[in-house]
Amino acid sequence: MNFYLKLFFFFLILIWVLGIFVEVLIPHFNYLAFLYPYLDIIYSHVCHQQPEKTLSISGHSLLVCSRCTGIYIGSLVSAFILLFVPFIKVSNTKYLILASVPMFVDVILYSIGVYTYSKTIALFSGSLFGIAGIIYIYKGLQILLAKKREEET
Question: Rounded to two decimals, what is the model's pTM?
Answer without folding.
Answer: 0.90
